[in-house]
Amino acid sequence: MMEASSREAFSAATERLNAYARRAKSETLSTVADELLSVASLLSREPRLRRALSDPARSAEDRAGLATTLFAGQVSDGTQTLVGVLVSGRWSTAHDLLDGTELLGVEALLAASEKDASLAEVEDELFRFGQIVAGEERLAATLGDVSAEPAQRRALVDSLLDGKVTAVTRRLVDLALVGLGGRGFEASLSRLVELAAARRDREIGYVTAASVLSDGDEERLATALRRIYGREISLKVSVDPRVLGGMSVQVGSDLYDGTILRRINETRAALGRR
């Protein structure tokens, strides 16, 4: 979690990206995203560099000048501008600058998808793949094994996803393999789903039910949650027969558990206290 000054620095960079995205093509945004993620990778490998680019003892102009010297001719003008905004901000820690650069790369990818009107599709693809991984213990262990060769894990993802998802989804899954903000693979996928929903000004509602919900049930649930939270809720439904009946819904830190399993467990607990 970034501290206030880092959040302000990231917010300024995000505003600049959004302004840039309004007039940029999807292909251009994809290029900017890849370049930002490459800069983030460099910052990850070079702790002295990220300290120099976030050093509060140096002026914003000095830090921006250093970034210009380092990246001139190596990245596009759009990326150079965004990196300048990033390093000109006041970051609480050097690691926050790294996280902010990586997140801005993700936002650029999502903006590219938004231009193509495929952002909702990307959100759903990431969630569905996360569900597949979570449901296969060996697959989850393999993809989450950071000690394994990255090329081997990418090859496995290629075999599972090539030709089945959008290019942006595929790129984001690659990023999850590395670990978004130091998270594990499955946690990175979940965070990317949430970022995609936030880009659409929605919050995620995680639903667990004993069986598949009908379209009507999903619409009624989405309408009820929209009334409660005052914004659109993007439902992500998981089927788990172990809950026996009913459903649970989690939105942020709020959990609404109306499953039969919960009632049985509460009854057992009450009987156990007698």
Task: Summarize the topology.
Layout: H1 4-23, H2 26-45, H3 47-54, H4 60-71, H5 77-88, H6 94-115, H7 119-135, H8 137-143, H9 150-161, H10 167-178, H11 185-199, E1 203-209, H12 215-229, E2 233-239, E3 247-251, E4 254-257, H13 260-272
Helix pairs in contact: 1-5, 1-6, 2-6, 3-6, 4-5, 6-11, 7-10, 7-11, 9-10, 10-11
Helix content: 55-70%
Q: Which percent band covers the strand fraction?
A: 5-15%
Q: What's the total count of β strands?
A: 4
- Give the uncertain stretches in residue-range form: none
SS content category: alpha+beta
Q: What is the arithmetic mean of pLDDT?
A: 93
Work out the radius of gyration: 21 Å
The ordered H/E elements are HHHHHHHHHHHEHEEEH
Main β sheet profile: 4 strands, mixed
- The span between the termini is 44 Å
Tally of DSSP helical segments: 13
* Neighbour order of strands in the largest sheet: 2-1-3-4
User: What characteristic shape results from the CA principal axes?
Assistant: elongated
In words, what does this structure look like?
- By secondary structure, this protein is α+β, with helices and mostly antiparallel strands.
- It contains 13 helices and 4 strands.
- It has helices spanning 4-23, 26-45, 47-54, 60-71, 77-88, 94-115, 119-135, 137-143, 150-161, 167-178, 185-199, 215-229, 260-272, and strands spanning 203-209, 233-239, 247-251, 254-257.
- The chain has a 4-stranded mixed beta sheet, with helices on both faces.
- 33% of the residues are buried.
Name the descriptors.
single chain, 274 residues, alpha+beta, 4-stranded mixed β-sheet, 4 strands
